[in-house]
Design brief:
Layout (H helix, E strand, L loop, with lengths): L15 H9 L7 E3 L2 E2 L9 E2 L6 E3 L9 H12 L41
Antiparallel strand pairs: 1-4, 2-3
Length: 120
């Protein structure tokens, strides 16, 4: 139940956005992250984001919901771009396969060719 007191038909269905936001936060690994934001003045109501090098992170301060390996893997996978090609399907291996010779990322490019009745 939220503030507007509406009942949800499926309260336990998790959307991809919710799962991604949980996997993005380091607090779910058992860490405490302080000083993400600050205020310019005590009179100012708006907060300003601090750069990540100014954050204070205390590791393993509480019980973890997600193990560290899963969190690191999710962080790595969310940085990998998921490009949708012309067929309308994103390739799950995009950014994960590397060239054995030069070490560059390999991309799969497929295209959709519409066949018309006139083309024979």
């Amino acid at each position: 139940m939220r503030k507007n007191k509406k009942e949800f038909t499926h309260p336990f269905s998790w959307s991809g956005y919710v799962v991604r936001s949980i996997l993005a936060k380091q607090e779910y690994c058992g860490d405490t992250v302080n000083f993400r934001t600050h205020k310019e003045s005590y009179k100012d109501k708006s907060s300003v984001k601090n750069p990540q090098e100014n954050w204070l992170i205390f590791n393993d301060t509480h019980e973890a919901i997600i193990d560290r390996e899963t969190w690191e893997l999710a962080k790595k996978l969310t940085k990998t771009p998921r490009r949708v090609d012309t067929t309308g399907v994103a390739n799950p291996l995009t950014g994960l396969v590397y060239c054995a010779d030069c070490g560059a990322k390999m991309y799969n490019h497929r295209f959709f060719r519409a066949y018309y009745a006139d083309d024979k």
